[in-house]
Design goal:
The protein has 298 residues and is an alpha/beta fold. It contains 9 helices and 14 strands. The strands form 2 sheets. The protein has an 8-stranded mixed sheet. A 6-stranded mixed sheet has the order 9-10-11-12-13-14. α6 runs antiparallel to α7. The protein is elongated and about 65 Å long.
Amino acid sequence: MKRTPTRRIVMTALLAAPLAAAPFSASPVAAQEAAQEADFETTEIADGVYRFRWRFHNSFFVVTPDGVVAFDPISPEAAAHYAAEIRRVAPGAPLHALVYSHDHADHISGAPALFAELGEAPIIAQENALAKILAASDPDRTPPDSTFSDRSEVSVGGQRIELHYLGKSHSDNMVVAFLPGPKIAFAVDFVSHESVGYRDLPDWHYPEMYEAMERLQGIPYEKIVFGHGPVGDRSSVDGQIRYYEDLRAAVETAIDSGATKEEAVATVQLPEYAGWRGYDNWFPMNVGKMYDWLTAED
């Protein structure tokens, strides 16, 4: 089946870690193979629900008696391994749908590589993603076939997967998935487990990101798979909300004291988060971006 990139159906209602260390081996070939295997892993989170990790990125797929729903192919290289893992877990199962979390290339490149192994399937994304993916003209970022506005749903093999758009957060088209049965969510980039924001918060939207995190907590999930890092729970997202609230308060205090951006970056600290991923390198950048946001409001 030849895919037509501009074909789409707009839907506004519901639709029917760090790399593991390679074990010691006297054989260079065995060590190399072990290192390659450490690039990815597949973990069963609940019955038929899996996290696929490729290096520092995570994806998510759901296996049902009638087919597989996969999210985020990540990259062409990752997608080849991703497809092989789906085939290993669910041999012969058709790919029912592929869902994009958002338009960024580091999460959704690789659909052609995935389809080459599993067969083509409809791609679903939030409606704001379509124009950005088309504008990128990236052959590895296949445009979605169907889009939705605020909420949609994929139902297959007795499994319901809700797709929620919670507003602007990291991008203006972030999709959060929720499986009501096992109460598992999948959320990418704007939340994670015990991590400060990535670098200078590229494509984060202020203050809407705070509202999106609060809306996420309105979804009755119990376990959550993130786009990066370990699996978490509701307390993981509560921690992210506290972090960004504390970041805003600390930078506001620096601004009120007359600090320049450079002074704020050099002096603002949140030592209670010093053990979080990215604190040493990314936290100063978080401070700088928060300073820009807050001073732009004045």
